[in-house]
Amino acid sequence: MNSQEAARLKTAFSLQQLINNKDGDFEVCGDDLTEEHYDLKFSEVAEYINTDCVGFEDENSNSSTLSPFEKLKTKMTKIDNNGKVMKYIMVQGVGNVVPSNAVVYVHYSMYTEYEGVPFDVTFLRSKEPVRIVLSSTGIIPGLELGIRSMKKSEKAQFLIHHDMAFGKMGCAPRIPGEATILCEVELFRYSENPDTDGFEDLSMLEKTKFSSIKYAKAEYAIGLEYCKDNPRAAAVRFKKALGVLGGLHLLNTEEKQERNELLLQVYSNLALCFCEKDNLVPTQVCVYVKEAFRVCGSKAKNSKTLNKCWGIALYHLNELEESIKCLLIAKKLDPKDTEIQDFLSKIEVKKKQHLENERNICQKMFKFSLDKKENKIKELSESMIILQEQIEAFKSGNQKDLFLPVPITTEEKTFCLDYGKSLKLLANVVNRGNIQAIHLSKPWDPSSF
Prior knowledge:
Blueprint: E1 7-9, H1 15-19, E2 28-32, H2 35-38, H3 42-45, H4 68-73, E3 77-78, E4 85-91, E5 94-97, E6 103-112, E7 120-121, H5 122-125, E8 130-133, H6 141-148, E9 151-152, E10 155-160, E11 181-191, H7 204-209, H8 212-227, H9 231-246, H10 253-273, H11 282-296, H12 298-301, H13 304-316, H14 320-333, H15 338-396, E12 401-405, H16 410-422, E13 426-432, E14 435-441
Antiparallel strand pairs: 1-2, 3-4, 4-10, 5-9, 6-7, 6-8, 6-11, 10-11, 12-14, 13-14
């Protein structure tokens, strides 16, 4: 058979076998495969023609000696160590890159160099995005590596070396041997784990038939992957697992035990997430620890992680005595944990600081009280001097009566009455209309007549 002719196989073969260049026997059908069997209709693929693959000459370009894919490569960046997968972002995505083992929903078109018409277009198979489970053997390695570098809603081009595509053999008649592949990919959405994919889209009846413990475990596993670098995202996953486990209808004791063990792990990791420096929420830690104690009982109360997290949270809430109790329990469960001892030392320092602050506050309050009392005495002395001068002027003058408004304080009133009497004046309190006044008068002197 001529190498340019196509033939139909009687049985299918593994694409991975072809990619890995493994030997195999293929049985060919006797009937010839004509062009119409493998050529796509032009009207179907016209909108997917890619001129980047053809290499039209650009009058202003100085790179006419470069092939079309070589020109594309100049604006791309490598996403692997060997540069066998190059990437150019056409539309920026949002959020985090696709994690390993995710389920992705994409559309893509694949081209070979100098062929503007794609040899594979997912749109022609389905208008809905194609579902791909990463880490499976369903797609070429270069495409999977490219998808793993993408974010939600991103659109990108990838140049894939034949080692990461269809190998030295290619896939006749459309893909030559050792062909570099251009792949345009649009990522619509993804689920982090195949076990969680589609759960939120199920109806309530369908969700009851779904293995909820399996779903909770999958969410918990995703949370663990986020824990180190993104505790906030991890907490979101743990909360989802917690919500599923909380509403789980248990059929037997074995399921209940499995749920409680998973609950303890979820509560512990939630407490850890909210103890992280960049995601510190002490009140949340207290809530989850108390809930773990209530639901999981003695296993939770004997958990070093929960007691330690609770102690740290109480430290930040300045509940120092309660913090010490929790940390001592955790230390008893794991004497080698140096972080527990560090916090116990911090508590002692903090207690000393609190005592010093209280002492300073008391001293300031006491000093303020003394100063206020001294100022008050000083003010009274000044007012009494004024009253004294008025009474003495009255004594030496020709005026027979002096009416003084009753002073504000009892001390001033007493002073006026006592001082007037000491000068042999008549002094008493009288009413002048609606106002009280101190009346000072001189005693009757017969010699004045």
